[in-house]
Structure formats: structure tokens, C-alpha cells
Amino acid sequence: MDNDKQSMEGRADEARPAIIFADTEVDTSDFGLTDLPGLLALWFLAAIVFLQFFTRYVLNDSLAWTEEIARYVLVIVAFLGAVSVTRKGTHIFLEFFYRYLSPRTGKWLTVAMELLSFVFYGYLTWLAVELAQKTKTKMASVEIPKSLLYWGVAVALAAMTFYAAYWLVRKIRQSPEDVLRELEEHSLHDVTN
User: Fold this and answer.
1) How far apart are CA 105 and CA 107, in angstroms?
2) Which residues, 6 or more positions from 44, have their beta carbon under 8 angstroms from its beta carbon?
3) Contact, 118 vs 161, CB < 8 A?
4) How far is it, in rounded angstroms, from Cα 77 to Cα 45?
5) What pTM, to 2 d.p., does this model score?
6) Amino acid 50: pLDDT
7) Looking at residue 1, what is its pLDDT?
8) Whole-angstrom Cα distance, residue 12 to residue 166?
9) CA–CA separation, 174 vs 190, rounded Å?
10) Domain ranges of the chain
């Protein structure tokens, strides 16, 4: 017994026998119709990357167009994902300062940030439309106009501008206490007890 006790000293605890997941169900209640293009683009990107991997490492004869298309689809996925986040009002932000401001000051700081987002997205939409109109070249590996990529980005930015306007109007209409309560709920959303 003494010998067993000495051999156990200095050893690490045994690993847990099973992985325990905190979320047992997937919550899709906040999934909207505007999230569908981003989800489809993500699956399309996954299919292209799998095709690229398969042809390169299994068939040992890679398709030339998969890398370029995957790069452009990744750009579209990023912008369509940003539309989903803007629709939900869940872009990352630093909520630290809001805790130390008065409710009235916190509300107007939030309104100023929403106004800044609205102007920024609107300006980027305008630039993307200009770029799409001026682009006349085609992709290097496929005969697809590059302007399609820029039009997709412009549409995503226009949707972000629309949702930023929605959040701006909503924050202006809310009471200062409601704005801060909503910010607090947003910051504690992913914290589990």
C-alpha cells in the first residue's frame, strides 16, 4: 500500500472519461433569411476547398481555378457574415467605458457609434459600386468578370448600411436605461453560469 502511494505521487490526475458539451441543443432562433446567402457561400467555399484538396493530394493533378475562386468566395463569405452580425447588432465592441458613464452619456455615445457605423458602411458601399463599375478585367483562371465580386461586396455593404440605419433609429428612440440594459445583456450573452 505504501509502495502504491509513493508511485501515485507526482502523477497527473486522470483525464475525464468523456467530453461534456455545455450546449445540448443548437439555437437557430436568431437565424434570419438574410443569413442564408452567407451560409450558402460558406458551404460553397467548403466544397471548393475540398475539391482543391482532393484533386491536389488524392488525384495528384490539381485544378487551376480552385485556388482563385476559393479566395474570392472567402471575401464574399466575410462580407455576408458581416451582414448577419450587423443585422443582429452583435459586432464586437468595448463595453468597458459604458459601465462608468451615466445612462444619458452612454446612450449618446452608443448613438454616435451607430451613426459612425452607418456613415462608414454607406461610404464603403459607394466606393464598392464605383469600383465594380470601373472594373473590366476577368479572373485569371476563369472567364468570370471580377466586377461580380465587387458587386457582391457592394450589395453586402448596402445591407450593412440598411441595418446600421435600423440600429441608429432604434438607439435614438430608446431610453438611456434601455440602451445600457441592452448593452449589458449583449456583453453577458455568452457568459455561462
Assistant:
1) 5
2) 73
3) yes
4) 8
5) 0.79
6) 94
7) 54
8) 54
9) 24
10) 33-88+100-187
